[in-house]
Structures are given as structure tokens and as C-alpha cells.
């Protein structure tokens, strides 16, 4: 037939098996949707069927094309702007009426539509018999039964899609919903009027309907498309709208929704026969317990505990192993095979491997965290958890659904912020994004680990680790309440959510689900952190100091000569035929002296590195900032490392290492760094470092994703700004008060 | 003017409905945006649904057109229903 590429968009409700169908079509390894809005990014794939190349785009799962949430705006803008050749309206055949609602809106958008009756095996098992041909005749679009989980009906679907794309009359066969004698004439009138405006003529009925619904996004769109006529068009719409409302006594958008459902109901009465309803029996029984007002919360607590146990008990040792592999084996291998003092070597070892490696090290923790979350999502529990948390979240002015992004935020803030897209209310969403960095992400673990190991006895470490997580949550609660009472005033949206039936998560499904979030994290390490590490390395390297205040080589020489003399003196004082005890004693002394030599030499190297660093840009900025960080008990060296933490929180550790010139292979377990810190700072300062890193401005990746998701630089800067100021205030108070007592 | 509603049972908030009872939606007391969003999910005046679990004052799980919706505390006193039949 044709050899051009066709663009096919997949649209459908949450939980209709849309992503499974996408995978079945493209064969791509992606995730299974089970929670509203799992499709966080535009997911695309390409497949060739009968010599036609199909470019498949998976749109976010939505209930309608009204601009209630970002997902809905994304879905409809894609269809309007990209004009796909065919839109496949995917429906859960066992839940057909509610699923067809979205399809009605697709028809109105004026694009060729093919309806997939997905999960038709489930529908059959539940006693629904759907006459696809009759439904097709009633709606004027092809209807194809599919079972995505078994890859059934996929070929049939693709053939129908290609035939529809090549059918010039496809659009004429569409049977649009009729809004009834009271409303339909007005819709027609406005449609005819809008069809006269060339800029809107492509889909006049869509604009007419949306105008009657008083849809903000459409009004803005019309103002942009025909600035000259906009006022007149809007006035017409408004007039008809109030006319309809005066006749029917309800708001127009409700009447239109009612008529669409009426139309669907009519079609379903003819095309669907249904015998028994047994879909949810078991799910209902389980829900009696899991969503119970009293039992629900403790059960939820146990679930969360298990997720964190899974993450830290298994993930902790794995992370350590990976860290050793990167920081010791890899760095050791490179430094032993590539000697010298070249800039490139320094860039690779100090910049790239320490920077990127320290992020990769935490992949096992993130993997397990996201595995736990994937199990909760795929089993259907997450929808219930969001609900259970709604009561708690409501008290702090947030929505139950905000809880899911916050949970993901404990793994990594970036996918957490992206998961806020499911929140319908803009204020709920903004508040959630603003407080998300306060959920201690995986990247902060190395900082905590370093500080705890350096300053606190073993038995205090676990409670303190939990404590710092808890402090983050408490601050988040306070900040959220404050924002909801001031800049983001308003009540949280009431909670209504669809509960998908419980199902056994499949290994494949969970793996696919997990993979996408991990991929975001790894990609962050591969791109932003790579670049940031190079920049930070440069900042901490240039300008290079060539003339030192002291002649360190000479100092080292002096030490060496001194030590050599000492050793010689001992050897001379020990006769060759001395008793074994005496020989042993002098051997020990020589070893002691050698150790002493090593320490002193290291100190000299340290002084030299420190002087070098002070001369670099990072050092100068650190010095410049010293008065500000001093109130928190920090010196310029910590200040310099904090600049590094902006690239990625975990860079703090390697930056601290560079500052303390432990050579090139520093990780949070480095005992030398721990001792150095211990000597220089008090435990109070250590705790202040943890506190500051918990609260202060998020990493570059978080900043970037906040700007992108809120579509404003303002919110990005606001987030970074308020967090940093807050961190400074809290840490200063803790340090100053703490100093009085300790 | 006689109200046409007189022969119907008066509307009551969803929180007062017993489990397993089937009811008809009369109105949702809330803003336009909320009403519209719920209407698009199928919660329209006139729609009938069955209450599955009802823990006064919420949550309440309902069965609507073959799927389960859960309504939170903020919702159960805004949704007004009458018993079907």
C-alpha cells in the first residue's frame, strides 16, 4: 500500500491495559500501567506491519480530554498539534461505558479513530458479550477486540489502523454523539459559525463543544489562533452557554457529559449483553480490611516498613560492594596503569569517576526501592495506599495522591516530581513539588554515612539515620501547611479515585515498571552529573597554582632526611648479634618511625593540596562564603564541598575528599577522611552538615525537572531559594543553641 | 408552585447510605470543576450505583457501571443520593 510512516496515538483510561497493548504492538520492553498516570513521559515505539511503518505514541492515561490535569492536557495537545493519522481509543471491555466516554471526545476532536476492546477475555469471563460489529456500526468507527496480555488481536488491530489511515472517507462515517433536541441545535449553530473562521475550521465541532464547556485551555487557544475574532467568538459561546443553562437548569458541561453518557448507554444497550457481575467480589473482601478506617493505617505502615527494609537490608551491602568495585578496584586499576600528573588523568580520576561513580554506587538501593514501589503499584495496593494516606495528607493540606510521588522521592526526587502529574489540582501539585526535596533521596545516604561513621558511635547510627529522615518529613509537613495557608492557599481537592481490582503482579510487569524509573536515575548520572562533575573538577583545579608559599618538596626532604637519620641511629645502636628481644624492639621502633614519616609526609601533601585548592575558583568561592557558613559552624572547606553538592548531593563526599586531599580514591568509607573530619570538627558540626544537606537547595537535576514540570523558572528558583534559606536558618539555630550546651 | 420532588424520598448524603444499597445520584455539592470532573468519571445526576463499603464518615467504595470508585471524607457529605425505587 503506502510506504510512508503513519503516526498512531494510543489513548485510553488509566487501568485499561494501554501500556500492555503498547508493548504488545511494539514488542518494546516497557512497563505495565496499573496506577493512574504511570505513563509519565511520552513513550514511543516503531513497528513495521505489511510494509507500512507505524510510529506508535503512548499517551498518558486519562478519563477525558478536559483540561483537568496535566496528563489530559498533554494527551489532547498531542492530538491537536501533532495530528496523528489514527488515534486508537483503548477501552477496558469489562468496563465499557466509562471507557467509551473518552472515545466520544476523540470522535469530536475530528481525528480518525479505531476502538480497541481490550481485555475482552476478562469481559467474557465476567459475562459480558459485546457485538463488535454492531458497536462499530453505531459509532461509525472500526471496533477490534484485543487481549493485550496474550497479544491477541494485535495484527487485526494494526491492519484496521492502516486501512483507516488510508481511507479518505473514514471521517465521514463517524457518528458523533447527538446532544438531544435542547442542546444539539445550539452546538450545530456554533459549529457552523466557527467553521467560517479559517484558523479553527479544521475541527469546528470540537471548538464549539469546548467553548460551551467554558474550557480555559480552548479559550486561550482560540485567542491565539484568531486574535481578531476571538472576542466575538467567545461572546457567542457565552451567550449560547447561558441560553442552554437557562433551559436545562444545569451547567452546560454537566449537560454535555450527561448526554455523552446517555449516547454511550444507548449504544451499549444495543451492542452489549451481560449476564453476571462477579468482577470485584474478592477485591471487595480484601478492601474491607485494607481500606478499613482503623486497620488501614497500621497495615499501610507495615507495608512501608517492608519496602524500606527490603531497600536497606539487601541494598546496603550491595551498594557497598559496588562502591568498592568502583572506588577501589577501578580507580586503583587506572591509577596504577596510568601514571603521571597530567590534567587528563586528574579529570578522569577526580572528576569523572568519583563524580559519576558515586551516583552509580547507589543504583542497587534505588533498584530495590523502586522494586518495592512497583510491587505495590502492580498489585493495585498503591491506589488504596494513596487513599489511606489521604486522611493524613489532608491534614497538612495535601491530597492522598501526593503520597505516591513523595514515596518515590525517597528513591530519587526527579521521578518523584514527574509522578506528581497525576494530581489534578495545580496547587496540590505545586505544593507537592516544593516539598519533595525534603524527602531524603538516595543520593544523601553517602553524606549521612560519612558523617555518622566519622562522629558517632555505632549504636547511635541507625537511630540517627532514621531521625534525619524523620526531620525531613516533619519539615515537609510544616512547610506544606505554611504554603497552603499563604502562597498556595486553598483546600486540597476532594478524593475520588478508581480502584483497580487487585491482581498478582507479574515478574515481567514489575521489571518493566521499575526499569523506567531506574533509567531516569541512571540517565541523570550519565548526563547531568557527568557534566557537573567535569565543571566542578575544573572549578576545583583552575587556576593552577605554580608558585607555592612554602617549598613543600624541601619540607618533605627534611622529613625524609630526619627519619633516615633516626632509623640509622637505631640500626647503629642495635648490634648484629643482639638478643632476639632487642632486635624485635628496634624493628618495632623502625616501623613506628616509618608510620610517623608517612603521616608527616601526608600532612605536607595535604597542606600543599589545600593551598592549591584555596587558589582555585572553588576555593575562592568557599572563602568568600565563609562568613555566611560560619554561623552554622562550617569553614570554607565545607563551603566548597557544598557547592559541589549542588551538582548532586553525593558529590559532597568526593568534594570533601578533594578538599582534604586524601588523594584520588575517596568514598564515604574512607577511614582517613573520617579521622581527618574527626580531628577538625565536632560531632555537632557533623550533625549540622547532615541537616544542611537534607534541607538545602536540591541538586541540579531536581532544579531542572522542577522548572520543566512547573513550566516556570520562578518556581525552580523559589524552590532552590526557600530551601537554602530555610536550611541556613535551621542549621544556624541548631549550631548556635547546640554550642551553648555541648 | 408544587415541587415535582414531593413524591420522591428526600436526598441524603452518601455517608448515611447502608452497604449493599443501590442509590441514584441527585447532586454533588461542590464547585463547577469538581462537578465536571466527577461527571466525566460517570458520577452524573441520575446515575445509579451500589455502595460496597461505607465507613462513616468515609471512605466509601461504590460500584458504578462495572468499576469501583472510592470517595474520601471530603466527598461523602457532598454527594447526595436517593434510594433507587
Count of DSSP helices of chain B?
2
CATH superfamily of the domain at 5-173 in chain A: P-loop containing nucleotide triphosphate hydrolases
Overall spatial form of chain A: elongated
The helicity of chain A comes to 55-70%
Q: What Rg of chain B do the Cα atoms give?
A: 12 Å
CATH topology of chain B: SH3 type barrels
Largest interface summary: A-B, 47 and 37 residues
- Named at the architecture level, the CATH assignment of chain B is Roll
Largest sheet of chain B: 6 strands, antiparallel
Q: Give the number of DSSP strands of chain B.
A: 6
Report the principal-axis shape of chain B.
globular
Runs of chain B in which pLDDT lies below 50 for 5 or more consecutive residues are 1-7
- Summed up, the domain count of chain B is 1
Low-confidence stretches of chain A: 29-40, 662-666
CATH superfamily of chain B: Ferrous iron transport protein A (FeoA)
Give the beta-strand count of chain A.
9
Can you describe what's shown?
- The complex is a heterodimer of chains A (742) and B (85).
- With 742 residues, chain A is an alpha/beta fold.
- Among the domains of chain A are: 5-173, Rossmann fold, CATH 3.40.50; 180-248.
- In chain A, α24 (552-573) runs antiparallel to α25 (580-615).
- Chain A starts with a strand and ends with a helix.
- Chain A has a 6-stranded mixed β-sheet with strand order 2-3-1-4-5-7, with helices on both faces.
- The model of chain A is unreliable at 29-40 and 662-666 (pLDDT under 50).
- In chain A, 66% of the residues lie in helices and 6% in strands.
- Chain B has 85 residues and is α+β, with helices and mostly antiparallel strands.
- Chain B has one domain (4-83): Ferrous iron transport protein A (FeoA) (SH3 type barrels, Roll).
- In chain B, β3 (48-54) and β4 form a beta hairpin.
- The model of chain B is unreliable at 1-7 (pLDDT under 50).
- The interface between A and B is large, with 47 and 37 residues.
- β9 (496-499) of chain A pairs antiparallel with β5 of chain B.
Amino acid at each position: 500500500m503506502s510506504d510512508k510512516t503513519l503516526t498512531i496515538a494510543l489513548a485510553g483510561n488509566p487501568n485499561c491495559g494501554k501500556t500492555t497493548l503498547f508493548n504488545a504492538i511494539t514488542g518494546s520492553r516497557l512497563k505495565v500501567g496499573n496506577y493512574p498516570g504511570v505513563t509519565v513521559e511520552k513513550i514511543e515505539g516503531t513497528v513495521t506491519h505489511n510494509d507500512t511503518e507505524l510510529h506508535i505514541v503512548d499517551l498518558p492515561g486519562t478519563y477525558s480530554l478536559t483540561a483537568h490535569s496535566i496528563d489530559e492536557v498533554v494527551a489532547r495537545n498531542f492530538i491537536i498539534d501533532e495530528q496523528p493519522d489514527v488515534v486508537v481509543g483503548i477501552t477496558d471491555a469489562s468496563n465499557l461505558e466509562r471507557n467509551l466516554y473518552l472515545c466520544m471526545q476523540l470522535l469530536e476532536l475530528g481525528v480518525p479513530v479505531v476502538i480497541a476492546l481490550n481485555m475482552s477475555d476478562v469481559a467474557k469471563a465476567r459475562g459480558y458479550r459485546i457485538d463488535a460489529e454492531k458497536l462499530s456500526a453505531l459509532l461509525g468507527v472500526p471496533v477490534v477486540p484485543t487481549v493485550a496480555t496474550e497479544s491477541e488481536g494485535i495484527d487485526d488491530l494494526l491492519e484496521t489502523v492502516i486501512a483507516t489511515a488510508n481511507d479518505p472517507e473514514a471521517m465521514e462515517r463517524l457518528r458523533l454523539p447527538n446532544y438531544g433536541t435542547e442542546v444539539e441545535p445550539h452546538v450545530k449553530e456554533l459549529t457552523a459559525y466557527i467553521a467560517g473562521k479559517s484558523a479553527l475550521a479544521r475541527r469546528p465541532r470540537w471548538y464549539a463543544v469546548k467553548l460551551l464547556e467554558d474550557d480555559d485551555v480552548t479559550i486561550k487557544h482560540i485567542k491565539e489562533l484568531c486574535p481578531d475574532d476571538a472576542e466575538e467568538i467567545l461572546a457567542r459561546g457565552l451567550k449560547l452557554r447561558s441560553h442552554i443553562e437557562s433551559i436545562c437548569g444545569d451547567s452546560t458541561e454537566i449537560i454535555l457529559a450527561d448526554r455523552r453518557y446517555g449516547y454511550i448507554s444507548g449504544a451499549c444497550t444495543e451492542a452489549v449483553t451481560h449476564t453476571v457481575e462477579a468482577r470485584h467480589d474478592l477485591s471487595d473482601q480484601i478492601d474491607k480490611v485494607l481500606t478499613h478506617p482503623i486497620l488501614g493505617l497500621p497495615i499501610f505502615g507495615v507495608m512501608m516498613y517492608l519496602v524500606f527494609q527490603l531497600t536497606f537490608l539487601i541494598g546496603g551491602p550491595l551498594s557497598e560492594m559496588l562502591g568498592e568495585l568502583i572506588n577501589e578496584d577501578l580507580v586503583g586499576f587506572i591509577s596504577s596503569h596510568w601514571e603521571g600528573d597530567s590534567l587528563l588523568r586528574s579529570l578522569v580520576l577526580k572528576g569523572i569517576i568519583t563524580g559519576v561513580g558515586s551516583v552509580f554506587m547507589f543504583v542497587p538501593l534505588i533498584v530495590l526501592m523502586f522494586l518495592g514501589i512497583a510491587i505495590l503499584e502492580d498489585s493495585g495496593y498503591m491506589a488504596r495506599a494513596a487513599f489511606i494516606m489521604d486522611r493524613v495528607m489532608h491534614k497538612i493540606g495535601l491530597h492522598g495522591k501526593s503520597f505516591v510521588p513523595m514515596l518515590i522521592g525517597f528513591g530519587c526526587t526527579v521521578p518523584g516530581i514527574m509522578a506528581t502529574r497525576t494530581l489534578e489540582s495545580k496547587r496540590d501539585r505545586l505544593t507537592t513539588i516544593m516539598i519533595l526535596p525534603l524527602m531524603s533521596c538516595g543520593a544523601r545516604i553517602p553524606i549521612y554515612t560519612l558523617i555518622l561513621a566519622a562522629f558517632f558511635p555505632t549504636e547511635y547510627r541507625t537511630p540517627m539515620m532514621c531521625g534525619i529522615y524523620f526531620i525531613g518529613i516533619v519539615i515537609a509537613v510544616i512547610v506544606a501547611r505554611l504554603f497552603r495557608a499563604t502562597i498556595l492557599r486553598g483546600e486540597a481537592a476532594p478524593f475520588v479515585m478508581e480502584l483497580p481490582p487487585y491482581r498478582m503482579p507479574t515478574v515481567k510487569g514489575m521489571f518493566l515498571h521499575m526499569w523506567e524509573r531506574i533509567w531516569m536515575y541512571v540517565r541523570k548520572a550519565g548526563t547531568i552529573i557527568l557534566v557537573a562533575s567535569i565543571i566542578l573538577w575544573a572549578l576545583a583545579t583552575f587556576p593552577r597554582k605554580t608558585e607555592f608559599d612554602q617549598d613543600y618538596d624541601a619540607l618533605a626532604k627534611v622529613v625524609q632526611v630526619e627519619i633516615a637519620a633516626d632509623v640509622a641511629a637505631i640500626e647503629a645502636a642495635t648490634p648484629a648479634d643482639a638478643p632476639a628481644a632487642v632486635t624485635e624492639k628496634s624493628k618495632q621502633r623502625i616501623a613506628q618511625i616509618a608510620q610517623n614519616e608517612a603521616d608527616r609526609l601526608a600532612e605536607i601533601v595535604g597542606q600543599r593540596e589545600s593551598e592549591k585548592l584555596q587558589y582555585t575558583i572553588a576555593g575562592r568561592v568557599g572563602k568568600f562564603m565563609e562568613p555566611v557558613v560560619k554561623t552554622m559552624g562550617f569553614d570554607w572547606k565545607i563551603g566548597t564541598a557544598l557547592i559541589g553538592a549542588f551538582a548532586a548531593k553525593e558529590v559532597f563526599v568526593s568534594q570533601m575528599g578533594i578538599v582534604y586531599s586524601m588523594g584520588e580514591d575517596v568514598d564515604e568509607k574512607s577511614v582517613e577522611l573520617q579521622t581527618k573530619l574527626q580531628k577538625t570538627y565536632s560531632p555537632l558540626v557533623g550533625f549540622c552538615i547532615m541537616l544542611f544537606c537534607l534541607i538545602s537547595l536540591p541538586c541540579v537535576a531536581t532544579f531542572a525537572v522542577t522548572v520543566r514540570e512547573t513550566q516556570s523558572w520562578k518556581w525552580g528558583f523559589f524552590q532552590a531559594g526557600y530551601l537554602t534559606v530555610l536550611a541556613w536558618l535551621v542549621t544556624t539555630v541548631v549550631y548556635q543553641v547546640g554550642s551553648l550546651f555541648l | 408552585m408544587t415541587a415535582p420532588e414531593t413524591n420522591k424520598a428526600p436526598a441524603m448524603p452518601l455517608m448515611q447510605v447502608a452497604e449493599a444499597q443501590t442509590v441514584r445520584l441527585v447532586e454533588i455539592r461542590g464547585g463547577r470543576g469538581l462537578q465536571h470532573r466527577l461527571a466525566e468519571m460517570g458520577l452524573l445526576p441520575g446515575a445509579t450505583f451500589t455502595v460496597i463499603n461505607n465507613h462513616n464518615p468515609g471512605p466509601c467504595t461504590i460500584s458504578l457501571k462495572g468499576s469501583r470508585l472510592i470517595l474520601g471524607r471530603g466527598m461523602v457529605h457532598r454527594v447526595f443520593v436517593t434510594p433507587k425505587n
